[in-house]
Every structure is written in C-alpha cells, then in structure tokens.
Write a structure and sequence with these properties.
heterodimer; A: 617 residues; alpha/beta; Ubiquitin-like (UB roll); 5 domains; five-stranded mixed beta sheet; 20 strands; B: 155 residues; alpha+beta; Glutaredoxin; 12% strand
Amino acid sequence: MKRIKTISDLEVIRKSILAQRDPEKTTIRMCLSTGCRAKKSIKVISALENELNNHNLHEKVGIKKTGCHGFCEMGPIMVIEPANIFYRQVTSEDIADIVAETISKANVVNRLLWKDSRTKEYTKTEQELPLYKKQKKHISYNSGKIDPTDIEDYIAANGYSALCKALSSMKPAEIVETVIASGLRGRGGGGFPTGIKWRICSEAPGDIKYIIANGDEGDPGAFMDRSLMEGDPHRIIEGMIIGAYAIGASRGFIYVREEYPIAIEHLSLAIQQAEKYGFLGRNIFNTGFDFTITINKGAGAFVCGEETALMISIEGKSGTPRSRPPYPAFEGLFGKPTVLNNVESFANIPKIISEGADWYSRIGTGNSKGTKIFSLVGKVRNTGLVEVEMGTTLREIIFDIGGGIRKNRQFKAVQTGGPSGGCIPISKIDMPVDYDSLREAGAIMGSGGMIVMDETSCMVDIARYFLNFLLFESCGKCVPCREGLKQMHHILTNICEGKGEKGNIETLTELGHFMISTSMCGLGATAPNPVLSTLRYFHDEYVAHIYDKKCPAGVCKNLFEYMIDETLCNGCTLCKVKCPEKAVSGEKKKPHVINTEKCIKCGICYNSCKRKAVLVI
Amino acid sequence: MNIERVDHILEKHEYKHSAIISIMQDAQGIENYLSEDTLRYISEKMELKLTRIFDIATFYKTFSLVPRGRHTIRVCCGTACHLGGAVKNLEQIQRKIHIQEGETTDDRMFSLETVNCLGACALAPVMVISEDYYDAVNPGNIEEILSPYRSGPEV
C-alpha cells in the first residue's frame, strides 16, 4: 500500500474503491455491535453465509458487518440494500425465509418488519421508522452503514478528506479559529468550547504536547461513545489527527473503558490501518507533521472520566483527580500541555473542517451548536441511540422519536447527565434540549444519557441509586465528597427504608450545597444534583416516604405491599403461574390472593397483570 | 503463577512504569486474578515499589486479589438496568447461589459481581455470565439462565 501524500492521492484511491463497487448490488447490512451481538447476531451471520452459499448466491449478494444502527432494543438488526428493507429481531431460523423471499424474489417478510404496537402498522424501510425519521445524523451517519474494520469503507464515504483539507490548505491557527467559530462545545459533560481549549493549549509554551480522546464513558445509561468507537472509529481518529496538528501534538492517547472490548478492537485495527495509509506516523502528507496514537484501557474506575484523573491513570498510577489550576492545557499529561476531548467531540471535527464553521454554526441554538447523540432508554417505547439537532424539545425526543411511554403508563421524569445530572419533570417536557436550558432546569447535558421514568419509578430511590454509585466511585481524596456522599447516602437509605425523620430534607439540601461549593473535582461538585433536582421537582415523594412511610411508586420494599383487587381480578392465573416464590394462590376464574409472608416484592405479578388488578398499597 | 507468561507481558510493555496498569490487566488475564506472588514478581522485575502496585490493584475495580469462580456473573447496575429491576435480579441470584456480591461459591463455580454499566442499556436489565449476554432478565427467568452453567463443562 502506497502512503497517501496529497489530496489527489486520496481522490484516486477513493475513486478506485468506488469503481469496484456496484451500488445496485444486493447488500445485507448486519449489525455486529455490542447490543446486537448480545442478541446473537454472529450466529445469524454464519447462518446467512451458509444459506447464501447453499443457493450459490454468495457472489451476487454482499454481506456488510456494520456497527450500531441505534435501534438496539430491536436487535439483531438487518438492513437489505438497495431497497433498504429493515428487519428486526432476526434469528437464524428466519434466514431461510429471508433468502428465499427477499433476496430471491424481492418479497418482504412481514413478520420481521417493525410493527407499531399502537397502530399495528408495519414499517418497511429504515428511513421510515419513527425512531429515525426526526433524527439528523451528521455524526453517527456512518455507524450501521459502513464496515468499521475496513478503512476503505470510510474512505469511500469521504473519510479522511477533512484531514487532507486541513493539512494541505489550512494553518494550525486557522483550524483552531474554525473550531472556535463553529461553536462546538465539549460533548463529554462540561460543555467547554472545544476550540478555546485548543487555542489555549496551542499557545502554551513547550515543544512536547499531547492530545487525548476520552472514551471512558462511565455514566450509567449512556452508550453513544461506545457506539461511535465501535461503528465509526476512523472518524474519531481523523478528528484527533486534525486536533493534534492544530495544537502541535505528536502523540495521542485514546482512553477506553475495558468494558468495551469491541470498541478497543475496532480502534486498534483502525489505528493500524491509518498508519498503513499514511494518515498516522511520520511526515504525514509531507508536512513534516508526525503523530501516533496509543490506546489505554481503563480499569473500572468511574472517576477516571475526570480529565486530571484520566491523565494520572495514563501515567500508570491510581487515578485520583488533582485540583486545578494548573489546567491541563498548560500542565497535563506528564506535566506537558495537553488537550483532552470526548470522543464525540472529536467525531464532530471532520464535518466542521469539510463543511466549514458557517455551515456547522447554523445547526442548533444560540449557544449550543450542532447535533448531539443521546441514548434514549428506560421506560420509553423505542429505546436506542438518537442524534438530534440541539434545541429539539424533550417532547419530540421522548414522544415522537421514542414513541412515548411503555405499557400506556404515565411519563414522570427524564434523567439526563448521569450521576452528575438531574431529573426533569413533565412540566418541562416542551423545553429545548441544549446546554443552557438543561442547566437552568437543574440537570446537565452530560455525555447524553436520557433515562425516561414512569409512575413505577421512585424518585427517592433514583437519588439514592446515584449517590450509592458515587459513594463507591468517589476516590476519597477530598473531604466534602468523601464524607458528604456518605452522610447524604446514609440519610437517603434511611428514608427509603422507612426510617426517615423530620429535618432530613433540610439536611440533604444543606449538605448538597456545601458539597457543590467545596469539592475538589467535578465528581463531588455535581454529585448532589440528582438529590437536589428530585427535591426540587418531586418534594411530595420525599414527604410520602418520610412522614407517611409510603413509597407511592412501589419500589422501596419496606414501604409498600402488593395486593390483588378482588373486584378487578378475573382469576386468569397469570400471576400465580409467573410468581417465582409461589406466593399467589387462588382458583381459576376466582380472585387470587398474595401471601405477603412469601412475597419477595419482585413485581412480576404487578407487571404481568393485564387488568391492572395488582395494586401497590 | 506462570513466570514465562508474566515475563512475556513485561517484555511486551518494555518494563515501562507508565504501562503498569496494562501489565497488571494482561497478567490478570492469565489466571483471572492477581496472586500475591504475581504482584511481588512484577514489583521485583520492574523495580517498582510493591506499595504502588498494591495501591493500583486495590484502586481499580477490575483487579481481583482472590481467585474467581469458573463463571463470573456480572449484573449490570446501570441506570436503565436499575429502573428495570436490577436490584431485584441481584437479590434473586443471591438467593439462588447463596453468595453476596464480590464472593465466590464454595464449589468455585460462580463469582458474583456488579458492574456500573455495560453500555447495552437498550437491552436492560442485562447480565453477563462468562462472555454470554442475557437481556430482559427478571427474577422469574434467573434459574433458567443459571442452570446450564451449574453443571457446565470445564472452561
């Protein structure tokens, strides 16, 4: 392979790749990302390969193993091109029908199409799905379409042309100014302007500088970074190379959680391929610019998502944060000026360079530009990854794209920003989603987790859940975080166990504000957010727990019982059959009874009853 | 301890002090835990204080200083899984195999761990046994999921 040195080299290669491809050829795109793999998509692919071989179709039909399509809940996902037919929950047993009907006769297999549970209508193509219709895929466009292990696929989709443009026609300072003008803000949580960070670092004194991509996606409920790293690793690498050139770094690091083995595999492969093509290594594009990237595997410490802790971890130590200043742009990794951005921030860079800052800054709202990928999960009908323009309202995301709440239950809240974020209630459902509106509502953008809750979600329990999470993840270095979390968690546990007392709410509020103003790093300074935001919007639930000793949502075990309403129960026996502890008794067609001594309150009866006869008392 | 394999790992990382976490991760891959002998050996070979190695081994959640069972059950406790009933699932598993989080059964068949988030939130609640993912777990199907592993072949 000849190393690519100029724009025309890249164009020649891109054209030769495209010339070998027939856009009309039947191609089956199959997702091999974590979600679909968990649902046995590898087995489905080998069944498909066998079936195509048996029918002598293996040359006529191509198979593309892609990254995440976003509709993970419906995995394994298969899309058949050029008609773009979208099949969901495909199993090995379906393969014979797919080949016999769709591949051979162009007939659609209805049972594999996505069906709207309310209208009972089938959707045939990917672009018609409600989950995809309102999305604006600028960053996640390739994921699910290209083979992430093949650099040629990325080049064919105009990959590395932004890098070419940047290195051959732009000065480093020009790139920095373009990124500033685009208005891109950090996608990892804080929302600091990316270009400003680059400018500070590029102007910092020193010959050795570093650039780091933060792929330590620790926020529970967020998986957009995983999906990008698995599904389109070259985009992140391209963004990093441009960034390194702009700030004058010759070494880069990607810090990835070890819980993401496929992301690590795909990034490693992508780095090797980029080296082979001359996008990484020495004298890139004959500019004299050298740049290499190394991958560091995280080792299961949430706090290492914090920038100073992450750098200390790369240095081979226990990742505890240090106080700032000095900021990493002056004194970062190994004491050298360092830029650290989230992987999604880097994934935005190629598009900003190729389309220009003007184009980019027209997308989004006043202070929040571009699109953002959210992981829409929880009690919502359609769960998965969604990329929308900044400023899209919560209602559009949850009800139009997400299809509303499951089981026709009531929307209660949406939690954004992970353990540093907050819960937003129904009264704010028409709020535009951008950095500033979220902050005003007591939550944050964070990395983009959006967890939808319904009437069966207890807000006190959720607050306790996040504090419990942070209690274990706090590094213990500074007192406000270490002790504050412990005390707040202790109080919340008491409340959830029915031992809440008068004055608890006031103490929680006081401790929360104290932690915010005195903790050393972002972990402690944002840790009280889940408590304070639930106190702000769901004060009644705290009161019910503390004073009435009741958990209205039926989550806190000491504070409720399940009971069957005799007038509603028709004795269908479903709950009796499903109860793992055999705690339900009753004759067929007669009202059933729950033995509260035996009941473990697992909620299976409550969730399975079609007549809503199981009550939370 | 397999000295040959540990040596190979140390050479691969060129005995670099900054690579100590990767070295320990790779070394743990050999026996699925880090024995005291292994830690002492690495410390000696790398001329790195044992206290620093022990600090890392106890700071990062991935490292285990005690042998793990044949199958590690990892229950995801991310937010989506929590809302979906991860706690109830964890309690049911505890009832079924009679160990708590962080423990290993007497017959060394199962170790039970929780993880912050596996990033498979759309499949919540999720758990992983060895390398196998299970989605939409509930207290009613846990026994069914566990039983093939109870008498499974050697791994």
